[in-house]
Write a sequence for this structure.
């Protein structure tokens, strides 16, 4: 039970820092990469959604008697490293990151939330609500690929890098936070495939769906 | 009447861009200068308030039949220049900017809103609502000055630069946008001091109040 509790605080702390830093990075991309004022404003809208999700998580951590700063601290290095290693160099890369990179990160939180109580699982779902982010990115990337089909190779490569770096940081976090890792790979009753194998099968499937939505190949 | 209307669109466009870019700059300061995760989170909260104010203004521009991007465009260069010329080099400078720099900018909008209808004036007041920004900055700057009194000279100099650059950009905007300038300096009935003189007297008085709240001298 104390393992579950520390797993829950880890889950909410990780997700809170992910939303806080996601908010700040989207704001940076809006400020530095958006091609028009309208795009800048719309990406700012999406950043503000992440901030709202951050507040939900911070408030719940406080309600649970946890200190939000302490709950977030174990995840700062891994998430900051991920962002530093996947800094978009243009608007299209920023859009793909907002969809593919954020997408796989969210899949991890959803997986962990499968093994917490309905109250926390509901909060996690609320914090993961898409609220237009995917549509925003998919529409713009598809339109850009219609104008310039040869950008597809570069963006597919970029997507692989986003996912590779995400898996690498997830591995680092799982090693350092066993209670959180247990939420991800605990065996369910009556399932016989190894839990890690099932987890990666689901993550890969979701990633392939996103690549296909962008008009990119996951394997090319 | 058409002068007033273009003045109103200018006022809302200028304020909308100020809030949008204020949002993005506060987010940048939160990401790069906040000394703790809690400070980062709290400055992010203030940034999100600016984003909410931006949305109010953008929505009203759309209701008025104006294109928000076109309404904001005339102010981009002046506001971006102001931010580029007043980039804080540390957390204390960021806090002073959030209070003193944003304060004088808001005084300009309040002055212009004195001469528009109550409907627009009410919207401007809502968009200028402080929502904790001043208290956040004042508390932290005062505490820092208690620990390190000799920082006062540097921060007083920084404040003068913030205000000097703000007046310089305001002058540039007023020259380029006569309908907006007219809202600022139109003579009121029964007043005999020149309007520009009264405007600067009020701006100076408000600035001195802010400096005093920080524990800094406006003239030292």
């Amino acid at each position: 039970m104390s393992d579950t509790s520390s797993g829950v605080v880890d889950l909410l702390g990780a997700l809170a820092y992910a939303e806080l830093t996601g908010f700040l990075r989207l704001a940076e991309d809006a400020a530095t990469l958006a091609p028009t004022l309208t795009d800048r404003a719309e990406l700012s809208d999406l950043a503000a959604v992440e901030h709202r999700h951050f507040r939900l998580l911070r408030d719940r951590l406080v309600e649970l008697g946890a200190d939000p700063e302490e709950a977030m601290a174990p995840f700062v290095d891994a998430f900051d490293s991920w962002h530093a290693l996947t800094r978009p160099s243009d608007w299209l890369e920023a859009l793909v990151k907002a969809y593919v990179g954020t997408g796989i990160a969210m899949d991890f939180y959803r997986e962990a939330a499968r093994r917490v109580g309905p109250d926390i699982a509901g909060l996690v779902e609320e914090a993961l609500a898409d609220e237009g982010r995917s549509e925003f990115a998919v529409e713009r990337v598809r339109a850009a690929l219609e104008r310039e089909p040869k950008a597809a190779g570069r963006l597919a490569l970029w997507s692989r890098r986003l996912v590779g770096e995400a898996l690498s940081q997830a591995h680092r976090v799982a090693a350092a936070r066993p209670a959180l890792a247990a939420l991800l790979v605990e065996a369910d009753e009556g399932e016989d495939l190894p839990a890690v194998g099932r987890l990666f099968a689901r993550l890969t499937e979701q990633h392939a769906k996103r690549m296909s939505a962008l008009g990119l190949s996951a394997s090319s």
Q: What stands out?
A: Chain B has one domain: 2-214. Chain B touches chain A at residues 17, 20-21, 23-25, 27-28, 30-31, 36-38, 40-41, 44-45, 47-48, 51-52, 54-55, 58, 68-69, 72-73, 76 (CB under 8 Å).
